[in-house]
Amino acid sequence: MNMQNIVKLPERTLLGPGPSEINPRVLVALSQPAIGHLDPAFVSLMDEVKGLLRYAFQTSNRLTFPVSGPGSAGMETCFVNLIEPGDKVIVARNGVFGARMQEMASRIGAQVVTVDDEWGCAVDPNKIEAALRAHPDACAVAFVHAETSTGALSDAKTISEIAHRYGCLTIVDAVTSLAGSPLYVDDWGLDAVYSGAQKCLSCVAGISPVTIGDQALAKMKRRKSPARTWFHDLELIDGYWSEGGTRAYHHTAPVNSIFALTEALRLLKQEGLDRAWNRHQENSQQLVSGLQRLGLDMLVQDPAVRLPQLNAVRLPVDIDETAIRSRLLNEKNLEIGAGLGPLAGKVWRIGLMGYSSRPENVSFCLDALGSELGGAIQTAVGE
Ligand SMILES: *Cc1c(COP(=O)(O)O)cnc(C)c1O
């Protein structure tokens, strides 16, 4: 076979907000010859993936499976199935992704009540409680566990306890937290949770693990009209994904991506969640110390709510941050993330997600930033 001229791209060190680097074992799994999406060998892989996802989410929810689509498709799946037109939903906004939740809920026709916190801060559970007291007719609270646009971790357990006390379900964005920060879907009572494969699972983009609890299923069953979606209709999709079910064709599963996801989840299970969480923490601590030695401050002030997998660092004034990032990319094959929205030009977002979270990546990044910033920072200090 002629292997010349196959698509070839530069090899980057990916320390941005996702995608993260993919473990070579996952790449090998991805490149296996395809098999049919109803092949018994594939069906047994589907069952394995569901079991492994339950481990990753720490749940026994039956309806736990990977949505065919990126994290935003997982978000859409949760909102469009759980929320009906007219439902009142409390949405916490402390960054880009809370705002995306608000947008989706509004488009479904929900009455959205937003609770705002400053970018770089966690969601304030007291504000959620105040909103619930002011809106006793709310039926759901939606929030982002790990805000990738700022690097802040919110207290999912406390928010979920409060929401339940007021008779609300929780819809939780765990796109960046899954496999990077402690997440206990069952212990914390999270009702509908979605994630993404290209962040701390270090798999290909375009798959979104989702888990739906019994209370959320019950709300879906009570719907007055079917969800206004065909592709994301959980009842239809469950017919294909449920263990021992009819495996009715709904859409062609992204078979090779599922091969890759299976391997990524096996690797996570081999390492163990605790060890994976600790590894993220340790590598982040090394990075943060190094950034502080360079004279830089972290955006998230309180270390207790700082994400280890997404390190947002404040930039010195008077640097051309775009030029530096493009030199890092073009000369060192190193990708780091820019700030979004109000943080554009003010922070860099350095991701240490999944397989990217390795000591050699931390040193490489610190060396590269040191040589770019060394001059600029010394000048600033000398002034
Ligand atoms: C990346 C991300 C998403 C969106 O995932 P896509 O795969 O880009 O659609 C949603 N929420 C959070 C917190 C994210 O980090």
What multimeric state do the chains show?
single chain
Heteromolecules bound: pyridoxal-5'-phosphate
Helix and strand composition category = alpha/beta
**CATH superfamily assignment of the largest domain?**
Type I PLP-dependent aspartate aminotransferase-like (Major domain)
What is the total domain count? 2
What's the N-to-C terminus distance? 63 Å
Note the main sheet. Answer: 7 strands, mixed
Helix content: 40-55%
CATH architecture of the largest domain: 3-Layer(aba) Sandwich
The portion of residues forming beta strands comes to: 15-25%
- The count of DSSP E runs of length 2 or more, i.e. the number of strands, is 13
List low-confidence stretches: 379-383
Q: Tell me the name of the CATH class of the largest domain.
A: Alpha Beta
What's the average pLDDT?
96
Number of helices: 12
Shape: globular
Strand order of the largest sheet: 2-10-9-8-5-3-4
